[in-house]
Amino acid sequence: MESTSRKKIIVSLLAGTLFLFGILLSLSSFDLPFQPGTNQELLFFAALAALIFVLFVALTFVLGRNLLKLFAERRLGVLGSKFRTRLVVAGLLLSFLPVLMMFWFAYGLMNRSIDKWFSRPVEEVRGDTSAMASLLSKYAAQNARVEAESIAVTPETQRAFSGHGFAPVLDEFRRRQATLQGGFAVAIKKGNAEASFGAPASWLFLKPRIQLQGLDSDTPVHLNWEQTDYILGAAPVGKDGLILVGMPLPRKFSDTVRQLEASQQRYLELSRGRRLVRRTYMGLLLLLTVMVLFATTWLALFLSKLVTRPVAALAEATQEISRGRLDYRVEVSAADEMGDLVRSFNRMAEELESNRQQIEASSRDLSAANIALEQRRRHIETILESIPTGVLSLDARRQITHVNHAFLRMFTPSGTESGSADSLIGTGLGDVFSPEIVEDIEPLLRRAERMGSTTTQLEVALQHTQFSVALTVASLQHGGRELGYVLVFEDLSDLLKAQKQAAWREVARRVAHEIKNPLTPIALSAERIQRHLERATPQEGASFRILNACAETISTAVENLRTLV
Question: Is the pTM of the predicted complex or chain greater than 0.85?
Answer without folding.
Answer: no
